[in-house]
Structure formats: C-alpha cells, structure tokens
C-alpha cells in the first residue's frame, strides 16, 4: 500500500463526509492560479481542525501560516457569530489570495490577516496585550515551531488546544543524528513539550493525499 491507495482512501472519506464545497474548491483553485505552493491541508484534515475547534468551543483562534486561506476558512467556519480569528502570513502575495478567498467565504469581518515574520507579528500582539486564545493552528516554518508553541502556551488558558502540523518529516523526526533544521526544530519542540508541566501532548502519524506526515496535539493544563 502506498501513495495511490492513501489518496483513494482520503478521496473516499472526503466525498462521503465533506462532499462538494464550492467555496473551498474555489479557494484551492485561486491558490493554484496564483501559483502558490500546493501544501494546504487536505479536506479531511481541514475538517478535523474544524471539529477540534468546535469541540473546544473556540471563540478566539490564532493561525500561524495561512498560505491561501484554505485552513483559515475551515477554522473560521468553526467560530460562533461573535468569534475572531487572527491569522499570520509572511508572504504578502499569499495573504492577498487568502483575503479574496476569505471574502468569498463570508469571513472577511471575522478574520484579521497580519502580514510579516511570525516572530514580529507575535511580538506585536504581545505588545498590544492580546487576550489568550482558545485554539491555535501552527503551520509555518518548522525551525521556529518551539518558539511559536512557547508563545501560544504563554497566551493560553487551561483547556486551550494547540495543533502543530507537519511534525513527522517523512519519518526523519526519529533520527537523532539528523542535521536538517526542520527536523531539529521539531525534535526541540518535542523535548520542550516532554519537559513542560503546563501541557499534555501527543503526536500522530498520518498518511493520505499529503503523503506520510503527522501532527502534534497539545492541551494547555494550567
């Protein structure tokens, strides 16, 4: 069993449990037309984020790395009418595509897009005295994941959920001798999670249309 079968299974589940969503399809098409990297979450992964955010009762969501806004739409749809999502994107061209997709999805007023290096935009949020968030989705540069998660934990409350994407690194995360910066960042993240008494966490391997990958799910306890 390999990539072809994994893709077929994902397509089956997406057809059965998600169906045809014209807004999401248009968002992917717009990203392709703008020649954005084809690295958005898969439909069933997007719905998982949606369900997790709804289960957490999230009214305030922060996303680090929005690309063309596909995952942002899934998360935005999980918000109640008075909810807010702030999303961070380093690339202004990506953000412009995402803004158009969010308007098409009817989420333009609930989603705030901030452009720049995540380290800078997070520092700006900190300086503004931003309130804690209920849910985080972190899908940006893997080298900085430990820093993003540390910031999230400091701006959370008991029960806040943090999802970190792309943590398996094709299995290389298990290689203690790796010199790949993304692997090193991912391993440092897990070292820090293991040492923390503020969170409980687990990491899951996945296969599907996005290949062999996985995510880390973190719950802030105090």
Automatic annotation (TrEMBL):
<dbReference type="InterPro" id="IPR029063">
    <property type="entry name" value="SAM-dependent_MTases_sf"/>
</dbReference>
<dbReference type="Pfam" id="PF01596">
    <property type="entry name" value="Methyltransf_3"/>
</dbReference>
<keyword id="KW-0949">S-adenosyl-L-methionine</keyword>
<dbReference type="InterPro" id="IPR050362">
    <property type="entry name" value="Cation-dep_OMT"/>
</dbReference>
<dbReference type="GO" id="GO:0032259">
    <property type="term" value="P:methylation"/>
</dbReference>
<keyword id="KW-0489">Methyltransferase</keyword>
<protein>
    <submittedName>
        <fullName>Putative O-methyltransferase YrrM</fullName>
    </submittedName>
</protein>
<dbReference type="GO" id="GO:0008171">
    <property type="term" value="F:O-methyltransferase activity"/>
</dbReference>
<keyword id="KW-0808">Transferase</keyword>
<dbReference type="GO" id="GO:0008757">
    <property type="term" value="F:S-adenosylmethionine-dependent methyltransferase activity"/>
</dbReference>
<dbReference type="InterPro" id="IPR002935">
    <property type="entry name" value="SAM_O-MeTrfase"/>
</dbReference>
